[in-house]
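Note to self: the last two entries modelled the partners one at a time, which told us nothing about the interface. This time every component goes in together.
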Amino acid sequence: MKPGPFTYHDPTSVDDAVALLAGHEDVKLLAGGQSLMPMLNMRFVVPDHVIDLNGVADMSGIADTGDALAIGAMTRQCDLASSEIVAARAPILREALSFVGHFQTRNRGTIGGSLCHLDPAAEQPTVAAAYDAELTIVGPEGTREVAFAEWPLAYMMANLAPDELLTQIRFPYWQEAHGAAFVEFARRHGDFAIIGVAALLAVEDGKITRASVAVGGADVQPLRLADVETMLVGAAPGDAVFAEAGAMARKIDAMSDAYVTTQYRQRLAGVLVERALAQAASRATGGE
Amino acid sequence: MADKREITVTINGQAQTAEVETRTNLADFLRHELELTGTHVGCEHGVCGACTVLVDGAAVRSCLMLAVQADGHEVTSVEGLAAADGTLHPVQEAFWKNHGLQCGFCTPGMVISVAAFLKDNPNPTEADVRSAISGNICRCTGYQGIVAAALEAAETMRQEG
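The predicted structure of the combined assembly is written out below.
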């Protein structure tokens, strides 16, 4: 199992990377390599060209812009997990990263790579869905912004043309007092989740004023549970309302495979939505 | 025609220059070009952890990196852990004492992973150790000896400061 022959390019700027993309056919962009390298090794993909983004300046970094957490697409998962800015402003991202692979893979893996690879059960896209993350895409025509809701087009297919690359991800801050939680279930720690749930809840005067619930691993892309969110807003946080949310989540569209049935995924989604909401509510009111 | 590059990588403290085909992964470069066969290749898709090495001090899967990406960087393989006079690294010593290996296939990756983990987490619980080695698969030991070795190595390294 070795990669097929390709021509390797290592641009040092976004402009150079875009020019290389425009000038070649059958290209794969190499970010952290924790998904692409296995696919190359097993020859699931045999591209003519590999453009390595690891040497591109200004594609990694974590910044607090006042109203959002701005993350360069090539920022490594280990750097996000140890970032004080992430811990202070979007702790759910750090919580989710603890489930991503192992420390050895997080040392290379990048957030942008995960969002472009778009594995249905991956944790970072689920958090991006819950946060309504905004993505900056650069291509030959210039820069465009994409809302995460418009990002997944199909199974493992992002809204990214062959001559474009993702440069930045922004997580807009919730201005309301809120709590957030990421929970998942996998057969072994570090495996892809069977189901992962990201939940954010704003609570004011004993009422939920804003809710976001995203489920990964169920369908071909992370799902936002709009009906659950609508039901939650205005309700008092508590076991009864979270149980109702869980019951609604059990009706989610869910895949079936050789190991996990649709019914099991739906049941797990219900249980985990209930747990995530309870934890988010507890954190919203100062608990753990 | 094969796409080749000349790269210089500092391996276990020594700068090594070689011409490599760009599709060569770091594990194969270490084993085939440099004949450092201590790094083992198991699954070649990042699951088993046998090929784990340190790149600039961070534990990574060498099968999931191209050799050309290591150009200009420092790599430590299991051959580089022991001192020049042959004195074992505390993690190696503890694996030996605690029967932390049986067939030995996973051992290079285990030892590198544990050494990297203990550098950042000098005082781990057993649960921390089990989590840290969850990305390294052993099919012989049932992990008991490995966990005992990691905990003993942690204690030794704390005492040595």
